[in-house]
Amino acid sequence: MTRAAADTPLAISMGDAAGIGPEIVVKAFLRGHAEACVVYGCPQVLARAARLLARADGCAPCVVAHIDTPAAWRTVPAGAIPVVRARGIDSELLAGIRYGLVDARAGAAAHASIVDAAQAALRGEVSGLVTAPIHKEALHAAGVDFPGHTELLQHLCGGAPVRMMLANEQLRTVLVTIHLSVRRALDAITEEAVLQTLRITHAASRAWGRQAARIAVAGLNPHAGEGGLFGDEEMRLIQPAIARARAEGILASGPYAPDTVFMRARNAEGHPGEFDVVVAMLHDHALIPVKYLGLDQGVNVTLGLPFVRTSPDHGTAFDIAGRGVADDASLCSAIAMARRLGA
In order of start, what are the domains of the chain with their CATH numbers? Predict the structure, then answer.
């Protein structure tokens, strides 16, 4: 992607100022992986991250350029990072934030960055959104009532049903339930919820070039219920949803035992995957296998939004924030995935 080739820039929200988000955003620009991107957040926070990395490398910090609109990104000199200041952000307040600590000011700034970037995407001013990591406690401390990006973006886009997909080059998984306790998630697994997940996954598959994605559905219980011996959710809820999806032309199959279906779907050298994506009932069922394959390449994708949204497959890493050692590989993968999906 070059400046000449990009019609509309891709937005990156800066994440939590007390975490590694600003640092990995700067690194992505320095490594040339964020060409034709604009950052939504606070220019001073990005400049602090640039100075941090310059000290670590013993060189001059890169330039952070404040722009008023994303369309102005082309006016920024080569090598500079274009930043749109999110509304309501007070740079003086953010200057007092310490790395590695939960801070309501950082939560409020992260929220403002996401809101402004998402609204720009809805207006077509940016081609999509890549979100740097946020901290849920900081959001809560700032009075934000959403547990994460997915729920917040769903609200900003009018409440349309969305689903979370975690993906890398070997495996893609989509979740029926996301940020719920296991007890609440069990009640949220209904025939309609599974069917809606299959519909959203099928529709989104076209964005990555599969007109009829092979969708494997993981069961909820051990051995996918073993014919009702270990639970009947597969027979009562999941199988009927799969049957209805197939009647609509969706290439769904299962439910399969959740302890083996991810291995069957993994697409690796010498091991072509049997499926293009796995739909799983619970958060950890879906995320553990992808994260086990490596955090550096995992990308979180929100399916069902009116624009492309991706995110790194890790959190704010407060334990290493401010040290200049954070790895930007997952953010770079998220940028590349956003472009591959049409942003």
Answer: 1-160+306-343 (3.40.718.10), 169-293 (3.40.718.10)
